[in-house]
Records
---
Amino acid sequence: TAHSSCVRLVDLNGDGSKILLVADKKKLKVYKGTSVVSEQNLLDQPVSLCVFFTDDKNPRTPAVGVAAGPYVFIYRHLRPYFKFRLPPVEIDPQDAKIWEEMRAGNIDLGDGADMLNQARDAGTKLSDWSIEFLGKKEEGRRQFLEAKRGVVHEQLSVVTCMETLKKYEDTDDAVSSLVIGTEDREVLILDPPGSKVICRAELPSVPAIIAVTGLYDVEWRIVCSCRDGKIYTIKNGETKGNAVVTGSVIELETQPNAIARIEKSIYVTTMDAKLTSFHIKGRMNFSLALPAPATDMGVVRLQRNRIVEAVIVALQNREGRLYNGKDLIHTLTTP
């Protein structure tokens, strides 16, 4: 079963016909109707899938980005086109020095393990190499050290969540950038082709869910639900490429499982079966008890005499509930 962040309906050919993309179990599958029409292998378990336009060229055919491990795999016409790798994480100098000495043979395995343990006890954040090394017995440590001789000692983060941010206009086929949350507590904004980082922000905790609004060239906000159970907001700074984590922090009683942003309101569903709305400055607007825990939430744009944005909440009891503010305006039941 794929996560909702790995399922997208998309018009890949610009002819109005939609196909279903599903990323799961190291595969990217393409469905037309109920049939799988193509399948691509992935190097790692996917965590998110996004469809975005990288340029203004016609015909309007989007790219597909699949986040897996430390990479975002970008596809054009469902063929591999580009692979973006997260920037390496800085390794603590003490950790790096111990590995340099061990690989040069200046200290033996036992002394190296003791020094790494002392560094960890003193509060040093150890690299993945060090954590794996300490988890092995003597012979395993020896083999691990030999395998790492001549290998560049670098630390890679992994992608935890991903969305898109439109560049200069709010249309369905607008040029967009990928917005990536990482295990290293960072949020990165890439350039539209997805080749380099153009803006970054560091959070107090690891982002798990992000909701993006605005335009990169004008004004934007990224709302981040993090593993510490708090919601943080990142906004653009005074100069382009600058990002600021605002002082508005929303603390929740239970862990959130979905977030959405409409105008100046942040909607959150939590594991205690509640839908809560907050003002972007952190003040609670209202809180509703749901008949069952939520599984996901999204924004629906309704256009009649005027444009109304509402949230649709998917529940474990097979209901989909559409809310305009705190008013329930429609319920549908699925099989």
---
Amino acid sequence: TAAPYASRRIRYWDRAATELGGCRTAGVLIAKDKDNNYYVEHVVMGQWEPFTRNEKMRAIALRDRVKYGPHYEPIIYTEAEGGSSGRAAWKMVAKALAEFNVREDRVTGDKETRAEPWSAQLAAKNVYLVEDGTWDILSYIDEHVSFPGGLYKDQVDASTGSYNLLSGFKKNIGMKVLPLRPREGKGKTLRIVVCSRQQVSLLNVEGRALIIRLRDPLCLESFPPYMGDTVAELEIT
């Protein structure tokens, strides 16, 4: 009936731009708890022209903010589209969601290949559907059962995008990993991961970790909570 409140969340949008026909736009919200269970909390879908779609995305972002508050509000991702038309479409989405943490996700490979890690989690029964009466669970299940042969693939594609980011399957994309090798016989290699503030919440850290944050003294924006095995945080201004 509900996912654990203190979970990491991503709302992933698979966008379409045709009103009352063609492909559908789907926005899938998935939460990941501390035990690596995944919860599909909410799905919205429809066939909207671009302006109406962007307004719908904004309304859903406001809904998520009210529901989860500042600490567990979902990061919003939308699949990147190529070409000049794709860049123009992204600029309009970014404007509509100007006060939210919205990002592009550049995908590679076909939908079937990208869905394989998500399929494995479903088969392992590590995924739960939150049945709270706010979304069409039967349609979501039917699309997954018929994938990849069904008429629509938007809910599966959006779920795949959200899962791959939450699980760390794409954690090295956009991040710089610097191996520091100690002198001979002095132990294991130390990994230094340089990433953005937003990407910290997507990191999977095993064992002990030290987070060093570099902050502009003129920036008053607070650092989001990190749910990991962090033993210390050192602030350098």
---
Amino acid sequence: ASGVYTIAGTGTGLANDSDQFHFVYQQISGNVDMVARIDGLAPAGQAGVTIRASLAANAAHGSALVAAAGGVRFNRRLTAGAASISSAGPAASAPVWLRVARVGSRVTAYSSSDGTSWTVIGSESLALASTAYVGIVVSSYSVLTPTLATASRVVVSPLSLPAGQQSADIGSPAIAGSAAYSAGAYTVEAAGTDIWGT
């Protein structure tokens, strides 16, 4: 209502080798940038934004999360069924801006106090297909007791190249590259031995 999402959820959270949470999502092909301000979260649990390989509980994902007790984290699972990895960000509480961006297989998580100046929490290459699930996650750290989160300023921006432009790997580099475009800026990730020799 009026640009504000109110989401109730239970579940043990995004951790270990399997997740439990409530998910408001859409499928996005290719590179994408998602921003949301988590305005409130109570009485417990976590909320944030994620890019997820599938809707399976053990899917690969990269998530920027804030806990009700305070603290922002970058949680990720590199491949399906693997153990989760977590990196601490600022000791912030809601309201806080969170952001995840995908370029190729790499997902980067950010946080901000104002939605303008962003701090990178972490970045990781994940096992993602061409299409991923992007959205807001809420969990209560409990299978029986729900928590309530509110989120606003939600923006999902596909980072596709301008019309008529394409990107490609030349010479078969061992690691595939990727390109994204947003607000006049290109982000290009590439490998390869150089432009040289024969």
